């Protein structure tokens, strides 16, 4: 199904093998702005993926990349300081789902997954606890509640 939303970014895909994380947080209580929040999301994903043997990075485009391929899309909406939408990290996603679209509206770039870059099957259940640990650390959620 195609569903129109008001989150940042253009078209994307959510499906099997993709860790979709939509934190609902009050940025005012965390005392951070939207740009800083996105940087925290990106760094959490980078730290997570490094633990699985990849070398991700950021670029001028939002999200996390390996080379010219997007590993994690980030699209956030904020209303009255509260976040919704978030990130989609390709763990062991069937990349052919992206073939009919231009992910995030970025021409001449590809998409990738942790599995593709490590050569071994890396599942959502393996990645989730690691990502939660890094998100908690990046956003200092235990001390700012």
List keywords for this structure.
145 residues, alpha+beta, 5 strands, 5-stranded mixed β-sheet
Describe the structure.
With 145 residues, the chain is an alpha+beta fold. Helix content is 29%, strand content 20%. Strands 1, 2, 3, 4 and 5 form a 5-stranded mixed beta sheet that branches. Strand 2 and strand 3 (69-79) form a beta hairpin. Helix 2 packs across helix 4 (124-139). The relative contact order is 0.25.
Tally of extended strands?
Answer: 5
Structural class label: alpha+beta
The number of distinct helices, counting runs of at least 4 residues, comes to 4
Strand content: 15-25%
Assembly form of the protein:
single chain
N-to-C series of helices and strands? EHHEEEEHH
If you average the pLDDT, what whole number results?
85
Can you give the helix content as a percent range?
25-40%
**Distance separating the two termini:** 37 Å
What characterizes the major β-sheet?
5 strands, mixed
C-alpha geometry: globular
| Stretches with pLDDT under 50, minimum 5 residues | none
Q: Rg to the nearest angstrom?
A: 15 Å
Layout of helices and strands, plus pairs?
Layout (H helix, E strand, L loop, with lengths): L17 E4 L5 H4 L3 H17 L13 E3 L2 E11 L2 E9 L19 E2 L2 H5 L5 H16 L6
Parallel strand pairs: 3-5
Antiparallel strand pairs: 1-4, 2-3, 3-4
Summarize the structure.
By secondary structure, this protein is α+β, with helices and mostly antiparallel strands. It has helices at 27-30, 34-50, 114-118, 124-139; strands spanning 18-21, 64-66, 69-79, 82-90, 110-111.
């Amino acid at each position: 199904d195609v569903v129109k939303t008001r989150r940042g970014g253009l078209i994307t895909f959510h499906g099997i093998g993709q860790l979709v994380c939509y934190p609902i947080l009050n940025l005012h209580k965390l005392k951070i702005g939207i740009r800083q929040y996105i940087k925290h999301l990106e760094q959490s994903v980078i730290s997570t993926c490094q633990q699985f043997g990849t070398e991700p990075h950021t670029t001028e485009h939002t999200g996390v990349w390996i080379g010219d391929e997007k590993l994690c899309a980030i699209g956030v909406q904020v209303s009255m300081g509260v976040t919704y939408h978030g990130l989609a990290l390709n763990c062991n996603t069937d990349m052919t789902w992206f073939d009919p679209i231009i992910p995030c509206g970025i021409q001449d770039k590809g998409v990738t997954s942790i599995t593709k870059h490590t050569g071994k099957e890396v599942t959502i259940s393996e990645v989730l606890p690691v990502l939660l640990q890094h998100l908690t650390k990046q956003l200092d959620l235990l001390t700012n509640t």
